[in-house]
Amino acid sequence: MGSSLFVLAIFFLSCSLVSCITSTEFLYPNFTASNLQFVDNFGNFLISRNGTFKASLFNPNGQQTNFYLCVIHMASNAITWSANRNASISNSGKMSLTFNGISITDQDGAFKWSTPPLKASVSALQLTEMGNLVLLDQFNVTLWESFRYPTDTIVIGQNLPVGLLLSSAVSSGDLSTGNYRLAVSASDALLQWQNLTYWKLSMDAKAYTNSNYAVEYMAINQTGLYLFGHNGSVVVIQVNLSPSEFRIAKLDYSGQFNVFSGSSLSREFVGPDDKCQIPFICGRLGLCSDDAASNPTCSCPPNFHAISNSADCVPSDGSYSLSVSCSSTDNNSGSNASLVSYSRLGYGIDYFANDFTMPVKSGVNLSVCEDLCSGDCSCLGVFFENSSGLCFVLQNELGSVMSTTGRNADRLGFIKTLVGSSPTNGNNNFNGQALRFPIVGLVLLPFTGFFLLVALGFFWWRRSRISETEKVKLSYPTSPSSGDLDSFSIPGLPVRFDHSIDDDTSGGGYSSSSSGPPQLVYFPLFALEMHEQGKYLEVADLRLEGRVTSEEVEKLVRVALCCVHEEPALRPNMVSVVGMLECETPVGQPRLESLNFLRFYGRRFTEASTIEENDGQDDFMLYPRANASVSSKMSGSPTSFSYISSQQVSGPR
Ligand SMILES: *[C@@H]1O[C@H](CO)[C@@H](O)[C@H](O)[C@H]1NC(C)=O
Ligand SMILES: *[C@@H]1O[C@H](CO)[C@@H](O)[C@H](O)[C@H]1NC(C)=O
Ligand SMILES: *[C@@H]1O[C@H](CO)[C@@H](O)[C@H](O)[C@H]1NC(C)=O
Ligand SMILES: *[C@@H]1O[C@H](CO)[C@@H](O)[C@H](O)[C@H]1NC(C)=O
Ligand SMILES: *[C@@H]1O[C@H](CO)[C@@H](O)[C@H](O)[C@H]1NC(C)=O
Ligand SMILES: *[C@@H]1O[C@H](CO)[C@@H](O)[C@H](O)[C@H]1NC(C)=O
Ligand SMILES: *[C@@H]1O[C@H](CO)[C@@H](O)[C@H](O)[C@H]1NC(C)=O
Ligand SMILES: *[C@@H]1O[C@H](CO)[C@@H](O)[C@H](O)[C@H]1NC(C)=O
Ligand SMILES: *[C@@H]1O[C@H](CO)[C@@H](O)[C@H](O)[C@H]1NC(C)=O
Ligand SMILES: *[C@@H]1O[C@H](CO)[C@@H](O)[C@H](O)[C@H]1NC(C)=O
Ligand SMILES: *[C@@H]1O[C@H](CO)[C@@H](O)[C@H](O)[C@H]1NC(C)=O
């Protein structure tokens, strides 16, 4: 496995040298794909012209049950769009491109998702460099585009007009529509939960309001985040950001709106900054407070306790239960005024919506405020300011409450409760303080490079094979033959050059019986040793003699070795890899101390292979290390070298 990956990486690198990035940005009907069918390719089946975005049948977060048709930014692995977010499929579920558009069905053929009816028949599907998935008719007129159906993310070049929403996902592995959304209004961008606003762009310290034109859409570009009005000619609100070629604005599943930039997705803007302002951060009536490091911690307010298996809090007195809004489908007909009472939350506790909704009354006393709530079955509680007599009502759904220090110290919350215990109230005496709701930050996978290398290399390789046999029809074979990978595990830089230079050679590169170094040599180790000895041409295919220079091969080998440094931190990122290959940045010197694991691994590999296939013949080794102790053959079973984790050999960060 390790060797195949390494050879794949070498592939991609070699193909960069001869500038082989060819377009697979178009697919034509009839085409079908499933993750299983493209499993060798990590589910990727379409790639934009310059390889910035790919389309994939992908299972986010490594779970194995929910697969989605996604558009993914290659360098960062950020999912920028998903088609069937509410209707995931299994790894054998299919996407089909027909003259009618795209449809997605599960393995049993059950319909899951499709594009809406189109005006004309589809002649191509294109993935653009901006990350837009576009259906074109025969005149290249756009029939449908994913940019018009945003999920939780916008990219540079995409507009989010008034009337469209970004909706959060449920979690990083479940892309279905969650409860948070970002809406663009005529004057602002708003974050909402249950139709209640909890954040506005205009109130952020980094946002500048330039004009009072009506907002038409939100967009990001290389230098900022903007709300535009007057047909794009006026900036209404702007947030200036440092220049970056890649940037996304994403409503995270946690309820925060983020702007990320660069292939490492570094966060440059977030709203709300204070996580306690996220409406459901601590569950229903959970009390969120910031610790010294501004990390939110959850507990229950006084007079409330947590219920087991949930972050929610309920009245401690088991003879009271929370009321349920009558607009809710969960009907407990609990609006009998004589059964209503109010549980006081205590001072220094506020509700996210109070800053964004108008009080329903001012200049009244508490009993008037409570009566207002009791008479309205949609009211779930009140906040009352004694000094001003302001009365706020809580509606739709109860979210978390937050502890405030100083601000609105006079504001007191009262939660509507009903006499009579409800089943959820239970009899457990859970200590609310003990219950810490896990607050999961966005986990940014720092890897990208490895995936990109392998994916691109493999994708390219498949393409070049296919385009050789049948003129690119992009109807890939249904099951990749296992022989494909076998032909990879041959050392040398062969296959790419076979195609590009030796076009007259037949077939797809070496078979295990063809010339070249024996298959069982562990190629990364071989490359390392030839690097140490400065014999770079040894690494290249013999048939290339005279056609590649030692310098060209040296560059490849050095970049490739840097990419397999044992310490991930020593691996170059994709930007530097590309820079090195394009001769813009000097090629790094591989750190031998971080590559020694290859010797260990390589030796185990060859030993294992020896036992399995060569029955003790030592002479198959092309380059026995002078002092290599290959004699201890009895030590390994064929699988015993797998104790080096894939992370350790996984290539660049
Ligand atoms: C594509 O599939 C449709 C039915 O799904 C069929 O009618 C049509 O002939 C097919 N076209 C091609 C080019 O195979
Ligand atoms: C692709 O890259 C080339 C060279 O870097 C550039 O000239 C071209 O504009 C890019 N194409 C797109 C669609 O971005
Ligand atoms: C997903 O389902 C939610 C309701 O659960 C709905 O509001 C949303 O529009 C759906 N999204 C898509 C893309 O179908
Ligand atoms: C549509 O676009 C493709 C690729 O850019 C091009 O090859 C083709 O000629 C175009 N067709 C028309 C009708 O413009
Ligand atoms: C939110 O408001 C819209 C229209 O204003 C309404 O259709 C929808 O039911 C509301 N949703 C909730 C959860 O109150
Ligand atoms: C981004 O948009 C703003 C507002 O239209 C504009 O002033 C700025 O020049 C744009 N930046 C780039 C890099 O195009
Ligand atoms: C808005 O601008 C586009 C081009 O930027 C133009 O085609 C369109 O006519 C304009 N619409 C209005 C209402 O000015
Ligand atoms: C909820 O209760 C009201 C009156 O008590 C009734 O009219 C309505 O049908 C109920 N809704 C549901 C979903 O049971
Ligand atoms: C409300 O509760 C009181 C006392 O329990 C009862 O007498 C009355 O009939 C109830 N009213 C309704 C509308 O359920
Ligand atoms: C609250 O105000 C109402 C009318 O303004 C009045 O009738 C009532 O007595 C007041 N209650 C208290 C406790 O002050
Ligand atoms: C509320 O305000 C009134 C006077 O406006 C005062 O007498 C009363 O003590 C206050 N109550 C509380 C709980 O602060």
TrEMBL record:
It comes from the Eukaryota. This is G-type lectin S-receptor-like serine/threonine-protein kinase. It comes from Camellia lanceoleosa. The lineage of its organism: Eukaryota, Viridiplantae, Streptophyta, Embryophyta, Tracheophyta.
